[in-house]
Amino acid sequence: MTDERYLKRTILKETITSRYLPEGERALRIYLPPGYNELLSYPVVYCQDGEDFFNFGRIATTANQLILDEGVEPFIIVGIEVNKKVRTAEYAPDGDRHDDYVTFFGEELVPFIENKYPVRRDPEYRLLAGDSLGATVSFHIALAYPELFTRVLSLSGAYFERSLEIMEIPRDLTWLRIYMIVGLQETAYETTDRGVYNFVELNRSARKLLEGYGADVYYEEKDGQHQWGFWQKELPAALLYFLPRG
User: What is the residue range of the signal peptide feature (predicted)?
Assistant: First the structure.
């Protein structure tokens, strides 16, 4: 049975205006930790597919558990909503909305959150998290804004051809720390618009390229499929890898 303390969550809804996104705005979900105090400062986790992270990943409940029982320092979560119809266009590096989304993230979203909430502004206290293409865009945001983001939580990253081509470009990645996990049953996953892919091989290729340029990569393959039933179980350990303990 779930401890009732984990279910007492404070989740706010925000809307941010944007000069870069075609629709001119984006909805956000903001999780505030137990004992939230505006006089303190908090690490922050930015989640792509924000609605899914909260509804299917149960990240707010997990956060309460980590803070209340595991001694993790309280942190804030920012879930960025996405219209599934244009998700690939925003998240994939060859998508026609990708550059605008990345710019929105670095130029508008981060300043919006840091002006409104008491989050820490050192890159080591900002974490980008995503599943599948959400993991992919998280990596590309970090690549575009290494002064903001140096840490990426990648759940079954969809590192398709264009992402691997970008990873092949010689560059110093010693600043990047990335947690990668992929399910062993993801060897023939049929994507909605790109066909069937072996996600295990995609992630192995990405790992090799990233490590080749000096990135600090935690990598694991475990029993699991390309779905939230797998990722939800892996979230606590992934967050514990990055978040400071009190």
Answer: none
Cα atoms in the Cβ-side hemisphere of radius 13 Å centred on 45: 30
pTM for this one? 0.96
- Say which CATH number the domain at 218 has: 3.40.50.1820
Residue ranges making up the domain that contains 118: 4-242
Query: How confident is the model over 94-149, as pLDDT tens digits?
Result: 999 999 999 999 999 999 999 999 999 999 999 999 999 999 999 999 999 999 99
Nearest residue to 77 (alpha-carbon basis) of 104, 117, 105, 106:
117
Three-state SS for 195? strand
Distance (Å, whole) CA 166 – CA 47: 22
Instruction: Provide the pLDDT for residue 1.
Output: 43
Tokens linked to 40: 């303190």
pLDDT digits (tens, 9 = 90+) for 165-202: 999 999 999 999 999 999 999 999 888 778 899 999 99
Instruction: Give me the pLDDT at residue 2, please.
Output: 58
Of 106, 100, 98, 93, which is closest to residue 146 (Cα–Cα)? 106
User: Residue 189 in contact with residue 226, Cβ under 8 Å?
Assistant: yes
Pick from 215, 9, 20: which is nearest to 106 by CA?
20
**Tally of domains within the chain:** 1
Angstrom distances, CA of residue 60 to CA of 27, 32, 55, 74, 103 = 17, 9, 9, 12, 27
CA distances from 231 to 20, 47, 105 (A): 31, 13, 24
Please answer whether residues 70 and 240 qualify as being in contact, where contact means their C-beta atoms are separated by less than 8 angstroms: yes
Radius of gyration, alpha carbons of the chain:
17
Phi, psi of 55 (to 5 degrees): -80, -45
Structure tokens belonging to residue 34: 């137990």
